[in-house]
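FAQ

Q: What does a record look like?
A: Structure on top, sequence underneath. For example:
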C-alpha cells in the first residue's frame, strides 16, 4: 500500500455494511487486516523504543497527518484514541503478532523487538511514502470533487468542522471546486494563522 491515508483510516473501528458475496467480504477483511499490520509496522518504527499502544498510534497518526493535506485541528489523534482506547490497545499487539514483530509486554507498555537495521529500513521507507503523501492526497481529493453531486458542499462542511473556519460557497465555487480550492485553502490557512 503506497497511500499513507489508508492505514490511519482502517485501523479505526469500522464495519462492512454490504458485500455482494462472502468472497468479497473476505477480500475486504483481508485488506483491512493488511492495513492494520502495515500501520502497526510503521507505528513501531516511527514510535518510541517502548510505550503504550496509544503512544505508538499517536506517532503514526501525527506522521500520516503531516504526510497529507490535512485540515485537522492539532490533537485530533487524541480524540480518535480517547474514544476508541480499548480498540487500539488490543489492535497493536494483534497486528504486531500478525506481522511477525516480536514484542515484550509489561502491563500496558510494549517493547517491540525489530531486527537489527529493520527500524532504519522502515523509517527510510516511510520517508519515501511520506514524500508521495501530498501528491496522492491531492489526486484523491481532485477525483472526489467530481465523483458525486454536492462534493463541494461536503468539502466545505468538512473543512469547517475540522478547522472552525467557515467556508462560503458561491455558485461558481460549487460548480468548479477544483479551480476554487486554492483560494479557499489560502483563506483557511490565513484564518488559522490569525488565531
Amino acid at each position: 500500500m503506497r497511500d499513507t491515508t489508508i492505514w490511519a483510516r482502517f485501523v479505526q473501528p469500522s464495519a462492512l455494511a454490504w458485500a455482494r458475496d462472502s468472497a468479497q467480504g473476505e477480500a475486504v477483511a483481508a485488506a483491512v487486516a493488511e492495513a492494520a499490520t502495515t500501520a502497526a509496522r510503521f507505528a513501531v518504527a516511527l514510535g518510541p523504543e517502548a510505550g503504550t499502544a496509544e503512544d505508538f498510534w499517536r506517532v503514526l497518526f501525527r506522521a500520516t497527518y503531516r504526510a497529507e493535506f490535512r485540515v485537522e485541528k492539532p490533537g485530533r489523534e487524541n480524540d480518535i484514541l480517547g474514544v476508541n482506547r480499548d480498540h487500539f490497545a488490543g489492535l497493536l499487539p494483534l497486528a504486531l503478532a500478525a506481522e511477525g514483530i516480536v514484542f515484550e509486554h509489561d502491563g500496558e507498555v510494549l517493547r517491540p523487538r525489530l531486527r537489527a537495521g529493520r527500524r532504519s529500513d522502515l523509517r527510510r521507507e516511510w520517508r519515501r511514502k511520506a514524500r508521495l503523501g501530498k501528491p496522492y492526497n491531492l489526486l484523491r481529493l481532485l477525483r472526489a470533487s467530481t465523483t458525486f453531486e454536492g462534493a463541494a458542499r461536503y468539502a466545505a462542511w468538512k473543512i469547517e468542522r475540522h478547522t472552525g473556519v467557515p467556508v462560503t460557497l458561491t455558485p461558481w465555487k460549487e460548480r468548479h471546486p477544483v479551480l476554487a480550492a486554492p483560494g479557499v485553502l489560502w483563506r483557511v490557512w490565513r484564518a488559522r494563522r490569525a488565531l
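Q: Is there anything notable about this one?
A: The first strand starts at residue 51 and ends at 52.
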